């Protein structure tokens, strides 16, 4: 199961990288979002995908699942949510002031 | 362009209550089950955004005259406030406490200070979510 | 347990939030923010004193014992940096009062400065590597807003680049964290150090270490600094000063922590790599500083040279070199802040950025000119100013470690720094003035007081190096013997 997830991570990373390398702002932002999903899956896979019960004292007899990766992922999701939101607003402002969403056209905009 | 959105308006009138109720339910179910401040806040926030999309900014603003930036700030204040409350009792930072209380009508209930923290998280999420959408849509 | 440790993080956050509610009353915002920063500075000084008598102190959040919970660890190294950062921020705020402009003040300038300093202090104090990531993000999110503040065309373009680079860097950070967690199954920095030492630093762990090197290199501007000159030259002067004083230094702190505490075993690979990167960084920074014709380019490339120079100390890795690195780190925070405040003021006074087009500033503003001269001397490393101690100790350390090439590059860079800054001095401060004495703009009193305070700090770090020696020695002791840190966290 872990190896399947890792393959999925690989696919997501390649998709994200492809999108990040494009010229359009929105594609780049979507690319960063996909990259962050990829790394969340990677953290999950690294913690081990055990089929166990919750790690509560007195309740877990035998196998239990490592809960830490999920806590890490939740934190990382919140952070990437905030960053992506900020990026979207920033991209929108840039589009409004510069009149273009193309990185190549943005290059060399002179001062004022 | 004026679009005919009678269906949307009618549906939203009912659906928005379901969404908001679901949000509140998710918020409280975080106590012992999946759910919690972040998810509850997201659902509540999306309900409010749906209102903004269906009716125009002014109408919604008349009924809900909040500055959502301040809602977010209030949320962070609640969350950090519950965290530094423990400093007053000379317990380590972020310590939480809980207890069973007998409340009239409801009976014995399990109350914790984590709920205050979670309420802060929920308010922050609602505040940020709505602020983002509004800041994109405001300068049309 | 000592709840005092968390205050440098939590006080600025709470103040920041309260300031959001006081949006319209600017005067109140100013007073509250400056009082907060002074309080934080005093608290960090008190903590520094406590650490000297009681040894390293830690705070387990919510009572979870390490290695299970998140914790803050305060050792002398972290506290020295927290103290310097808080003092520099206080002084930069003084400058901001008179220059930042009403619009920015209303657009939540002070709250975001507070969040920035909270993130910076948190990064210095945390003892958990995932918490380090979170504090980094708090700091970065605040910095994203501050870069874009004002919303000019160039600013938006540069901030978009800045944000994207940092998002990718944070992504790499998470990848490194995932692999680290996969191999050692813990996130507590002391516990990681223990596990790595038990397992012996195998190739996989060295790879993870190099991943961390790349991440922090991106944040610190070590070799991967291509984004830095652009994004550091667009925001208002006070923000520039804060960035060049704090942001890269947090990356350097993380590098030093990582490679002295967690991955110190495979030095022939990691430390050699850091040495090579530091060397190339300095050379490239020098080329940039020489080629620059406007004040911003010269200033930002000087930041890059400074980063490379501090990391020579880490690459050499001896006790003397680390002492030098700690001294130079403090010096660089203060001196770079002052340099950027002065550059900002020069641009404000003349409305020019090209150094050739401004001249004779010293005739209209003699004190201003001589303060610039002090920075110039300090950054070059002339005794008795602040840069001298750090430079001489890093040099001595490099000699001990027999890395002569780095030594040569490091000291050659001093000459380039001197030359590039002297060019500004000769072209912009000397010569005939183009603005008559009557028409000159006045330098606001707040700005003057911030220049003077920073200049005093520079002289103090240089002349009073002896009085700082107690703290620095303790800091270096922890860095050289990581077992001190590990015992403080895991024993009891």
Automatic annotation (TrEMBL), chain A:
<dbReference type="GO" id="GO:0005886">
    <property type="term" value="C:plasma membrane"/>
</dbReference>
<dbReference type="Pfam" id="PF00420">
    <property type="entry name" value="Oxidored_q2"/>
</dbReference>
<protein>
    <submittedName>
        <fullName>Na(+)/H(+) antiporter subunit C</fullName>
    </submittedName>
</protein>
<dbReference type="InterPro" id="IPR039428">
    <property type="entry name" value="NUOK/Mnh_C1-like"/>
</dbReference>
<dbReference type="InterPro" id="IPR050601">
    <property type="entry name" value="CPA3_antiporter_subunitC"/>
</dbReference>
<keyword id="KW-1003">Cell membrane</keyword>
<feature type="transmembrane region" description="Helical">
    <location>
        <begin position="67"/>
        <end position="92"/>
    </location>
</feature>
<keyword id="KW-1133">Transmembrane helix</keyword>
<feature type="transmembrane region" description="Helical">
    <location>
        <begin position="28"/>
        <end position="47"/>
    </location>
</feature>
<keyword id="KW-0472">Membrane</keyword>
<feature type="transmembrane region" description="Helical">
    <location>
        <begin position="6"/>
        <end position="21"/>
    </location>
</feature>
<keyword id="KW-0812">Transmembrane</keyword>
<comment type="similarity">
    <text>Belongs to the CPA3 antiporters (TC 2.A.63) subunit C family.</text>
</comment>
TrEMBL record, chain B:
<keyword id="KW-1003">Cell membrane</keyword>
<feature type="transmembrane region" description="Helical">
    <location>
        <begin position="71"/>
        <end position="91"/>
    </location>
</feature>
<dbReference type="InterPro" id="IPR007182">
    <property type="entry name" value="MnhB"/>
</dbReference>
<feature type="transmembrane region" description="Helical">
    <location>
        <begin position="111"/>
        <end position="136"/>
    </location>
</feature>
<feature type="transmembrane region" description="Helical">
    <location>
        <begin position="34"/>
        <end position="55"/>
    </location>
</feature>
<dbReference type="GO" id="GO:0005886">
    <property type="term" value="C:plasma membrane"/>
</dbReference>
<keyword id="KW-0472">Membrane</keyword>
<comment type="similarity">
    <text>Belongs to the CPA3 antiporters (TC 2.A.63) subunit B family.</text>
</comment>
<feature type="transmembrane region" description="Helical">
    <location>
        <begin position="7"/>
        <end position="28"/>
    </location>
</feature>
<feature type="domain" description="Na+/H+ antiporter MnhB subunit-related protein">
    <location>
        <begin position="7"/>
        <end position="131"/>
    </location>
</feature>
<protein>
    <submittedName>
        <fullName>Na(+)/H(+) antiporter subunit B</fullName>
    </submittedName>
</protein>
<dbReference type="Pfam" id="PF04039">
    <property type="entry name" value="MnhB"/>
</dbReference>
<keyword id="KW-1133">Transmembrane helix</keyword>
<dbReference type="InterPro" id="IPR050622">
    <property type="entry name" value="CPA3_antiporter_subunitB"/>
</dbReference>
<keyword id="KW-0812">Transmembrane</keyword>
Automatic annotation (TrEMBL), chain C:
<keyword id="KW-0813">Transport</keyword>
<keyword id="KW-0050">Antiport</keyword>
<feature type="transmembrane region" description="Helical">
    <location>
        <begin position="204"/>
        <end position="229"/>
    </location>
</feature>
<feature type="domain" description="NADH:quinone oxidoreductase/Mrp antiporter transmembrane">
    <location>
        <begin position="128"/>
        <end position="416"/>
    </location>
</feature>
<feature type="transmembrane region" description="Helical">
    <location>
        <begin position="269"/>
        <end position="291"/>
    </location>
</feature>
<dbReference type="InterPro" id="IPR050586">
    <property type="entry name" value="CPA3_Na-H_Antiporter_D"/>
</dbReference>
<feature type="transmembrane region" description="Helical">
    <location>
        <begin position="162"/>
        <end position="184"/>
    </location>
</feature>
<feature type="transmembrane region" description="Helical">
    <location>
        <begin position="298"/>
        <end position="316"/>
    </location>
</feature>
<keyword id="KW-0472">Membrane</keyword>
<dbReference type="Pfam" id="PF00361">
    <property type="entry name" value="Proton_antipo_M"/>
</dbReference>
<dbReference type="InterPro" id="IPR003918">
    <property type="entry name" value="NADH_UbQ_OxRdtase"/>
</dbReference>
<feature type="transmembrane region" description="Helical">
    <location>
        <begin position="370"/>
        <end position="393"/>
    </location>
</feature>
<feature type="transmembrane region" description="Helical">
    <location>
        <begin position="6"/>
        <end position="24"/>
    </location>
</feature>
<feature type="transmembrane region" description="Helical">
    <location>
        <begin position="31"/>
        <end position="48"/>
    </location>
</feature>
<feature type="transmembrane region" description="Helical">
    <location>
        <begin position="68"/>
        <end position="95"/>
    </location>
</feature>
């Amino acid at each position: 199961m872990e190896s399947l997830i890792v393959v999925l991570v690989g696919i997501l990373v390649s998709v994200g990288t492809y999108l990040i390398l494009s010229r359009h702002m929105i594609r780049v932002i979507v690319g960063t979002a996909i990259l962050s999903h990829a790394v969340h899956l990677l953290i999950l896979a690294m913690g081990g995908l055990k089929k166990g019960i919750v790690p509560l004292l007195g309740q877990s007899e035998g196998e239990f699942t490592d809960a830490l990766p999920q806590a890490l992922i939740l934190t990382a999701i919140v952070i990437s949510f905030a960053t992506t939101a900020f990026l979207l607003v920033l991209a929108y402002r840039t589009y409004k002031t510069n009149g273009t969403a193309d990185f190549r056209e943005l290059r060399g905009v002179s001062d004022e | 362009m004026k679009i005919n959105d009678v269906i949307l308006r009618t549906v939203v009138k009912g659906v928005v209550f379901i969404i908001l109720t679901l949000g509140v339910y998710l918020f409280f179910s975080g106590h012992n089950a999946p759910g919690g401040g972040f998810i509850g806040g997201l659902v509540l926030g999306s309900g409010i955004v749906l209102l903004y999309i269906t009716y125009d900014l002014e109408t919604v603003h008349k009924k809900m005259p909040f500055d959502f930036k301040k809602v977010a700030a209030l949320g962070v204040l609640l969350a950090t406030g519950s965290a530094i409350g423990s400093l007053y009792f000379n317990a380590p930072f972020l310590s939480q406490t809980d207890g069973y209380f007998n409340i009239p009508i409801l009976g014995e209930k399990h109350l914790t200070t984590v709920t205050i923290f979670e309420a802060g998280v929920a308010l922050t999420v609602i505040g940020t979510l709505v602020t983002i959408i509004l800041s994109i849509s405001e300068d049309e | 347990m000592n709840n005092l440790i968390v205050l440098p993080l939590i006080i600025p956050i709470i103040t920041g939030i309260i300031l959001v509610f006081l949006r319209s009353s600017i005067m109140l915002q100013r007073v509250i923010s400056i009082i907060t920063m002074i309080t934080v500075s005093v608290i960090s000084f008190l903590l520094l004193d406590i650490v000297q008598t009681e040894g390293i102190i830690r705070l387990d959040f919510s009572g979870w014992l390490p290695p299970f919970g998140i914790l803050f660890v305060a050792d002398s190294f972290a506290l020295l940096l927290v103290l310097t950062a808080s003092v520099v921020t206080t002084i930069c705020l003084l400058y901001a009062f008179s220059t930042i402009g009403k619009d920015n003040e209303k657009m939540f300038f002070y709250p975001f400065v507070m969040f920035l300093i909270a993130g910076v202090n948190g990064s210095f104090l945390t003892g958990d590597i995932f918490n380090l990531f979170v504090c980094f993000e708090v700091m970065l999110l605040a910095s994203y807003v501050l870069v874009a503040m004002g919303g000019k065309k160039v600013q938006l373009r540069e901030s978009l680049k800045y944000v994207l680079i940092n998002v990718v860097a944070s992504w790499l950070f998470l990848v490194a964290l995932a692999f680290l967690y996969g191999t050692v199954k813990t996130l507590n920095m002391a516990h990681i150090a223990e596990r790595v030492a038990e397992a012996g630093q195998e190739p996989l762990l060295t790879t993870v270490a190099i991943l961390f090197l790349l991440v922090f290199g991106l944040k610190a501007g070590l070799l991967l600094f291509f984004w830095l000159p652009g994004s550091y030259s667009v925001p208002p002067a006070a923000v520039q000063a804060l960035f060049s004083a704090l942001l890269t230094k947090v990356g350097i702190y993380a590098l030093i922590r990582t490679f002295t505490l967690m991955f110190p075993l495979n030095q022939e690979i990691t430390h050699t790599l850091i040495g090579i990167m530091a060397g190339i960084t300095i050379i490239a920074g020098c080329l940039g500083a020489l080629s620059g014709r406007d004040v911003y380019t010269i200033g930002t490339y000087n930041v890059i040279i400074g980063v490379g120079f501090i990391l020579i100390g880490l690459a050499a890795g001896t006790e003397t070199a680390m002492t030098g690195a700690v001294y130079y780190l403090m010096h660089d925070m203060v001196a770079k802040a002052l340099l950027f405040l002065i550059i900002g003021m020069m641009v404000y006074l003349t409305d020019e950025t090209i150094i050739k087009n401004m001249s004779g500033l010293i005739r209209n503003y003699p004190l201003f000119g001589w303060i610039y001269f002090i920075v110039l001397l300090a950054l070059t490393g002339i005794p008795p100013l602040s840069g001298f101690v750090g430079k001489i100790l890093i040099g001595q350390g490099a000699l001990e470690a027999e890395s002569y090439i780095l030594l040569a590059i490091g000291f050659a860079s001093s000459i380039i720094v001197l030359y590039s800054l002297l060019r500004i001095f000769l072209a912009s401060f000397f010569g005939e003035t183009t603005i008559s004495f009557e028409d000159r703009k006045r330098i606001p009193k707040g700005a003057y007081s911030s220049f003077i305070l920073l200049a005093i700090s520079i002289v103090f770090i240089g002349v009073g190096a002896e009085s700082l020696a107690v703290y620095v020695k303790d800091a270096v002791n922890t860095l050289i013997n990581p077992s001190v840190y590990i015992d403080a966290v895991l024993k009891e």
